[in-house]
Fold:
Amino acid sequence: MGLLVGVLPAAPALAVDVKTSASSRVLGEVTHQRFQVDLGSGATARGDILRFKENDPDITLRPRLARGVTAGIQQFVPLAESQLRRGAIAGVNGGYWLDRPTGVPNGLHVTQGRMVAGQAVTRSGTVTRRGMVGIQPSGRMVMDELAVDLVLDQPDVAAGPAKITELNRQTWSNVIKRPDGTDWRPEGEVLLFDDRFGARIEVPGGSKVVVVQGMEVKTSGRTEGTIVAVYEPPLATTYDVSADRYAIVAYGERAAELDVAPGRRVGVTTTITPARTPAAGWAQLTSGVAGGQMLVQAGQRRPDNEWVSYSAFSAAHATARQPRTAIGRTSGGGGMLVTVDGRRQGHSVGLTVRELADTMIALGAADAVNLDGGGSTTMTVDAKIKNRPSETGRSVADGLFLHAPLPPPSRPLTNACPDGGVPSSDFTDTPGTTHVAAID
Structure:
């Protein structure tokens, strides 16, 4: 790790002592630092920080789905390698996810202005509020615990609005175990899917499948489209959503709520209700990613009880020292992606959630959200691992990446320099490097 300099004094309420190394430049104003957390009794945690500016015109923070769809997971390094070709100079693993069917983000996920995942739920299917990160068109981040509601309306008929249970997440085929060991299966739901789902939808017999064209669900307001097809399969089947269309699947007792026919109009209204920040800050986000516990808000560590009961995590998840990943923003418009190594005796013991919150404050965060940790905790620069993950090959549902502008295509330089100024007459730039602008 090298010599640590620039001690950051901990606030009086913090139980950690954080020291940072000198910064090294990644690209432009993106920098990398290492840090060490002295926890007392000889315990030490070590981690890495990527710092950037929210309003940097040359750098954009973007969440990226594994394999480009909501239903899929991928090892983080191959995901980083695929994003490097799209200008991603550095990044960390993203948020928590569910096996429904595989790798669906557990909470808000927004990509290119379109919302492709919404509410967070517990393993038993109960809706819960968790920390989420939104990215506004300006690049500014907003962080808070959210309730996300989607409502379907049918303006051309007398049927009233129908609450949408899930977006790009199916549950009907999953028998869920209650705490007492008994089985539970939802008796009916209204599910919404788009072409970003990335898997065949399992459709129960007796369902209504409504295919809609012309909609695009965003993080606020109403979108409307035209029904182009309605299916009512008598037996269980599957369905694929084609490009630029949505599929509404209503089954069980809730199928009767849909009074639909081809040619009719339907609408979907999105309402995001943050716990403590203005709702206007979450309107029409460019990007967004699901997190876990809200660690820090307005410069203050959130109460410990929220990290267990309120966010529906186990006490062991919050109180055990583990590898951690977090995202934060400073009051001055700076952003930070942070990983903390753990489960490595002699190198780093990891942090509890409270210690992570204190560390984020010590590093300058005014707001911070805990992301997926444990074996998922990974940071890459130029798709090369920067930290020391506790596991190799762990798959994730998404990642958070700092993107630079894509380079131009390779250019022949034969006539750009005097004779003898290039290695040979057919010399060209190396194509695809994200550093071409810096080289120029």
Summary: The chain has four helices and 37 strands.
